């Protein structure tokens, strides 16, 4: 059972899901990727000129407002380039929002009237602007579009998800992901599945994108080549510890823990570069990385909530900090966990997880290692 077969958005509560989709982590990622998007569009349009219809896709779009903010950013950048180049007629924009069939596309569609209104609120700047947005359900680990159909593709924090749980994880009994102490075959199994998935992703986009088209994915990566030397996924190690506690107390079956693994892989730079080179459809034009603290969103709580939660001298109490990180991680792990362990343990699981995170964050300042790449179609 993998994330591409079971929609990762289906079972999470709307409040938690919305929190993740509009989280500070994702906003920071969008902000960090902005200069790469802008530079890529500038280089692309300088090389190929302005098409009559600019066709782009967001792969793994999810359902929060951050999705449309990137669409607006791209349109605004192209508008600015048209003005700079004295282009008389703006291109039309065709935008495909892709995710799995269980994604809440209706929520996105409800946001569209306000989105279109904001685009057209500045008639002098947006004279003649026409934008057409549609939802496209399906797995991006396979073909989604006709041949040569797209000019531009982007993806925000989706490519770390695998199409399925890797085969060969039988010895990963008390961990739910790769850990520093995992046997070598666990690392190998995850790496093999990632190689298959990312290669399929690249070859599919290679057929769907026009020559000279660009792709800018942002995803969670790994800071070291050898995953046994540093644990970039300590949050999963802590989550496994909570599940083990619940096994020992009789709340979770030991066999269920031993058979569960997260279908996520965080690649290192060397892996990404090698797979792009070997697949052969794209040039790797840029590879950048940035760090986002686990508790980055603590500082982005609204003022009212913060005022009621602040400790001495405006500090955020440890448990509150742990709870916020737990909520963020819950938003994307709950559907997979509930599907495997059942929904009855979920609330208790994340209460315990928040406490464990609070304890960890009281002495450590961990960050997620994120990657932005720019690819050009050969």
Set down the secondary structure blueprint.
Elements: H1 14-21, H2 24-48, E1 53-59, H3 66-84, E2 92-99, H4 105-119, E3 131-137, E4 150-156, H5 184-208, E5 209-220, H6 234-248, H7 254-258, H8 269-279, E6 282-293, H9 303-309, H10 318-341, H11 346-361, E7 367-377
Parallel strand pairs: 1-2, 1-4, 2-3, 4-5
Antiparallel strand pairs: 5-7, 6-7
Task: Report on this structure.
This protein has helices at residues 14-21, 24-48, 66-84, 105-119, 184-208, 234-248, 254-258, 269-279, 303-309, 318-341, 346-361; strands at 53-59, 92-99, 131-137, 150-156, 209-220, 282-293, 367-377. The chain is built from eleven helices and seven strands. The chain is globular. The protein is of the alpha/beta class. The two termini are 35 Å apart. The protein has a seven-stranded mixed β-sheet, sandwiched between helices. Helices cover 45% and strands 17% of the residues. Helix 2 packs parallel to helix 3 (66-84), helix 5 (184-208) crosses helix 8 (269-279) and helix 6 (234-248) packs across helix 11 (346-361).
Helix count, DSSP H or I runs of 4 or more residues:
11
Total beta strand runs? 7
Q: What would you report as the Rg, rounded to the nearest angstrom?
A: 21 Å
* Major sheet: 7 strands, mixed
What is the topology, as strand order, of the major beta sheet? 3-2-1-4-5-7-6
- Give the class from helix and strand content and strand pairing: alpha/beta
Low-confidence stretches: 1-22, 302-314
Mean pLDDT: 88
What characteristic shape results from the CA principal axes? globular
Order of helices and strands: HHEHEHEEHEHHHEHHHE
β-strand amount: 15-25%
Helical content (DSSP H or I, runs of 4+): 40-55%
Terminal CA distance reads 35 Å
């Amino acid at each position: 059972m993998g994330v591409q077969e079971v929609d990762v958005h289906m079972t999470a509560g709307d409040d938690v899901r919305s929190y993740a989709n509009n989280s500070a982590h994702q906003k920071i990622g969008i902000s960090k990727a902005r200069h790469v998007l802008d530079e890529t569009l500038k280089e692309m349009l300088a090389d190929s000129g302005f098409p009559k219809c600019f066709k782009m896709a967001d792969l793994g779009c999810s359902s929060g407002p951050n999705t449309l903010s990137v669409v607006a950013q791209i349109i605004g950048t192209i508008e600015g380039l048209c003005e700079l180049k004295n282009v008389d007629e703006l291109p039309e924009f065709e935008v495909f929002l892709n995710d799995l069939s269980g994604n809440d596309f209706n929520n996105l569609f409800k946001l569209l009237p306000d989105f279109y209104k904001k685009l057209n609120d500045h008639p002098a700047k947006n004279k003649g602007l026409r934008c057409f947005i549609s939802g496209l359900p399906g797995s991006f680990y396979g073909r989604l579009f006709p041949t040569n159909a797209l000019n531009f593709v982007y993806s925000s924090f989706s490519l770390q998800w695998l199409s399925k749980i890797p085969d060969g994880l039988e010895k990963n009994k008390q961990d739910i992901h790769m850990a520093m102490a995992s046997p070598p075959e666990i690392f190998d199994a995850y790496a093999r599945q990632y190689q298959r998935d990312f290669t399929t992703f690249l070859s599919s986009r290679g057929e769907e994108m026009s020559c000279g088209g660009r792709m800018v994915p942002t995803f969670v990566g790994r800071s070291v080549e050898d995953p046994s030397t540093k644990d970039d996924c300590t949050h999963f190690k802590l989550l496994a510890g909570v599940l083990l506690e619940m096994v020992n107390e009789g709340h979770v079956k030991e066999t269920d823990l031993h058979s569960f693994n997260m279908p996520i892989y965080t690649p290192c730079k060397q892996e990404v570069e090698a797979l792009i080179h070997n697949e052969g459809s794209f040039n790797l034009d840029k590879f950048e990385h940035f760090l986002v603290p686990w508790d980055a969103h603590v500082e982005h709580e609204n003022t009212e909530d913060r005022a009621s939660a602040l400790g001495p001298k405006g500090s955020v109490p440890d448990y509150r900090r742990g709870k916020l990180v737990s909520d963020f991680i819950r938003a994307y792990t709950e559907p997979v966990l509930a599907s495997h362990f059942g929904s009855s343990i979920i609330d208790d699981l994340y209460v315990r997880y928040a406490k464990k995170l609070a304890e960890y964050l009281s002495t450590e300042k961990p960050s997620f290692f994120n990657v932005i790449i720019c690819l050009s179609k050969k």
